[in-house]
Amino acid sequence: MRAAVLHEIGQDKLEVLDDVEAVGFGPGKVRIRVRATGLCHSDLSAMSGVLPQPAPFVPGHEGAGEIVDVGDGVTGLSAGQRVLLCWLPACGGCPACKRGQTQLCLAGFMNAGTPNFKRPGGDVFGFAGTGTFAEEVVVDAGCAVPIPDDVSFDIAALIGCGVTTGLGAAINTAKVEAGSSVAVIGCGGVGISAIQGAKLQGAAQIVAVDPVESRREAALRFGATEAVAPDALADAKQRVTGGEGFDYVFEVVGRSTTARTAYETTRRGGTLCVVGAGALDDFLQLNMFELFFDEKRILPSMYGGGDVLRSYERAIALWRAGRIDLASLITHRVPLAGINEALEQMRTGVALRTCIEI
Fold first, then answer.
1. Which of 88, 142, 184, 190 meets the CB 3.0–4.6 Å disulfide criterion with 108?
2. pLDDT per residue over 283-296, tens digit each?
3. Cα(24)–Cα(7) distance, rounded to whole angstroms?
4. 250 contacts 169 by C-beta, under 8 angstroms
């Protein structure tokens, strides 16, 4: 079968090969024919080494498709069923799951160290235990979440990561209050979803911050009340909040420099929500006096900060009701053979989300 493979960490292009085989099928597993997958910035971060991932590997974790086969012991799933892929399934038995913090379950991460694929030359891993830039994947049954017939594969793929992450950051983690002021730094697919979440929660002012003009224009269509380049954020803070700072600031870039800017843009007693996934060696510096004196809440948000299955259901319900726009998040479409074109679209910022149709 075909799959897009990164041979070594640090390479900026993928090679689409036709000699890749999905492996590991057996009890408790399902085989999925991937139909659509989104390109998330985390895929680029894994390719560059910002996020730890063994190589060679097949990127992609935001996907949807049809079940081809189910292994022994799998219940509630059957061949032909339409599913989205959950890259962080809950085991249900660990301390995090028992506390109701299923987004912190580490069971899914354990799969990242087991090869999902093989080639004549050896083993190939799947990013985050999945690897959706491939025609087929074999995953734990918990990674396959059934979707209703009216949810297309491309929409389902978005819900599998970016939409759930952004909406959840605003609704579950920050719990944005009605009438509040919000700034969102980084307006790709996840940032736009955070904007939609803040709008749903009733935020009065939502300022989108991004260096790419097309993304700023898109943010306005999705609910931002204004959109500015990063060098205009200080002026927006002064105009919108009288210099006090925003009630909520979402950092959706994953860098200490933007997180520091976000901290300084948050009002005293306000909330900084860190959504972007950053590097192990990139440190955010705060002095102990400001940490105490400003009483700003710093809330990281992992995969939307809540039960992902419930978050999927909520996103579908909101989409059906016309409360959120998911179709317009997909600004570009390419076949698997055009995967490197999609990577360039992400790097330059011209795409909110590129759908790879497989």
1. 88
2. 999 999 999 999 99
3. 21
4. yes
- Cα 66 to Cα 71, 83, 130: the distances in Å are 15, 6, 15
Do the strands 117-119 and 82-85 form a parallel or antiparallel pair, or are they unpaired? Answer: unpaired
What would the pLDDT profile of 17-31 be if each residue is shown by its tens digit?
Answer: 999 999 999 999 999
According to DSSP, residue 173 is labeled I
DSSP state string for 80-133:
T-EEEE-SS---SSSHHHHTT-GGG--HHHHGGGS--EEETTEEEEEGGGT--S
Residues 6+ apart with CB under 8 A from 204: 178, 179, 180, 181, 225
Nearest Cα neighbor of 147 from 169, 125, 163, 134 is 163
Q: How far apart are CA 95 and CA 99, in angstroms?
A: 6
What count of residues does the chain have? 358
Residue 60 structure tokens: 């992609």
316 contacts 159 by C-beta, under 8 angstroms: yes
Residues 259, 252: Cα–Cα separation, whole Å: 9
DSSP code at position 170: I
**pLDDT score for 56:** 97
Query: Is residue 172 exposed (0-12), middle (13-18) or buried (19+ Cβ within 10 Å)?
Result: buried
Q: Would you state the structure tokens that stand for residue 7, as one six-digit string? A: 């041979």
Q: Read off the tokens for 178.
A: 């009605």
254's tokens: 């994953």
